[in-house]
Amino acid sequence: MFTPEILEKIKKSKFLITGGAGFIGSNLVEKLIALEAAKIVIVDDLSTGFIENIQDFIPLPNVEFIQKSITDYEALLTAFNDIDIVIQLAALGSVPRSIDNPIATNAVNITGFLNVLAAAKENKVKKVVYASSSSVYGDDKTIPKIETSTGKPLSPYAVTKKANELYAETFADVYKMDIIGLRYFNVFGPKQNVKGAYAAVIPIFITNLTQNKPCSINGDGTISRDFTHVSNVVYANILAACATHFVKHEVFNIALGDKLSLNELYQTLEGEIKTGLSPIYLPKRIGDIDNSQADISKAKDLLHYAPVKTTNEGLIETINWYRSKSIMHA
User: Membrane-spanning regions, if any (predicted)?
Assistant: First the structure.
């Protein structure tokens, strides 16, 4: 999967992961530990992440956990000292959450992001990789989505991710920093939070079906997404972190490069879990785009990225993970 050069770089590098106790972050930390990274610093305020996601990692000699928010600039200045690579994953996710509370979303996703870039600049961090989002495509009708064609943002969350890309490009140009943005497309997999009002559709569907409860679909179910297993996103982050051939800010779509409607997703999950239940259809949510599918050719060409797990493989693995968790907590 990784070249010998990348594996060697990982072993020599000191990583800092913001949002490292979250869904994607904890999966990334686990992979970096397996690849024997020299040091891994996790910064997370546990507002949306969970200590359970990283509790097995914290005692390790090359892992350090700092419970701070990216809104705390002074804390970041200290934490980023002697760090080679920062991977910025901390954010308040969810389009509906941003519509309900745009001020909190702005404070973390824009001001917090600016703090990360500024702290990285002051500490002369060699590389910053950050999480952008497919939401930046907004009302653009192009399918599949290509990095050079974005539309009008449809939610405060999308605005924050677009602002992240603008700030990253400016910092790269003005301060000569090496910064890469990754536009994630509907990531799913183990450790994704199923609780709360802003949980993602796949963990909700799996949890409800395994408990023989009906599932709700917003809209008529024809809305499609490029559902992307977290292992693909982890792989892309490491490739971006270790890339040495960029001299300016770049953004990449990170996805499977395919699409699945909500109806097809439900049918796939129900076919695997076998409840016989039919979904309940609700009104479409404000801020949701109709269709999303990524063109991943740029990431393939420049990052040498290729998905390591298909959607169906990822769904089966994720079902089994949630089943194991329910058995453990029964």
Answer: none
